[in-house]
Amino acid sequence: MSLEPARRIFAAASRPLAGLGLILLVLLGFPVSTGAAAEPPAATAMRLEGDAGRTRFTADLSAAVGYSVYVLSNPYRVVIDLPQVVFSLPPETGQEATGLVRAYRFGPVDEGRARIVLDTDGPALIGKAALLQQEPGQPARLVVDLVRVEEQAFANKLAAAGDDPAAMPLAADPAPAVGGASPDRPGRRRVVIDPGHGGIDPGAIGVGKTREKDVVLAFGLRLQRLLQETGNVDVVMTRQDDRFLSLKERVEVARQNEADLFIAIHADTVRGQAARGATIYTLSEKASDAEAEALAHKENRADIIAGIDLETENEQVTDILIELAQRESKIHSLVFAKKAVAEMKPVTAFTGKPMRSAGFVVLKAPDVPSVLVELGYLSSREDERQLTSPAWQEKVAAALARAIEKYFAQQLAATTP
Questions:
Q1: Residue 408 belongs to what H/E stretch?
Q2: Which residues pair with 272 in a beta bridge?
Q3: List of E strands, 312-369
């Protein structure tokens, strides 16, 4: 089974370019295919559509390529950097003005690099960027949506970014999308929150008889509220009450809702009371250590309580696990995990290894970046006290919400290892 094309693009960090004005936003694209091509990809068509409020630029490509997109000022323009691309286009291409774009130009920059520059008639931010993979009878397509902003709003966003222009969020995007985008989610991201266990499966039981299913549901609902209050994120809960869902059902919730991020919430137990603190887990074919492997084995057996044949499910997702370990979803999951640790560390303790990896079934949606947040150990009296504290839940949920917002606002420049 192969991975579906990556569906989401996130802002990436970058340095200012000398002599090119101010960089306001950077987006990074990763090619799904990394195989070497005999000939460089060709740009076979380019076009603009939209109006003065929002304009879409589309480039047809003979093959998917990596790309970066950033906005510059003095003068206002959008720059799209590509690897080596041959431009097989009519000479008049780019001379027309449409919407926000007065004209555009393109060509090689140096050996192995090409560039497209869109001249805009005023300040604009990137509302969305995406690389659509080739399909039978259809070329690969690079799509960049531009959204007009007022000069003051432009300046305010720049000031908020400070010395780190990549910290600037995506354009606020109340305008309808141009052609084909989801009309109910313009510029928004969707998070699926998955409180573990539930119903006949209580999960771990603490030293004070606290049930894991109750703690993680309370935390998940707090996180949902905080994210909804930002107005920037759509939230889907796998469960909002005390009910049981199979691991497969939890994964399907993420896929059916086209989630941009899946967060499983847990609070386990270990032998003794010495171990305590939070841990962020990502998916890996090979566990990072024996403890992570044991926890994944324990969590993956949760369906046995409901009489579900886990062996069949594991066989069905084996291919996904192998491919996911090599593609975009793993990269995005690791990027988010780092942000979550950075935001949560000031407000709660972590284990000696804050980030770990293992083969959790619930993280195996092939096209959805996914993490499992282990809030703490119910086998620790101190952790159990915190886990049941509304004040502690609120501050940790707020930290995790900040990590989610920052993740969607910027993505660290990364390449497939």
A1: helix 390-409
A2: none
A3: 350-358
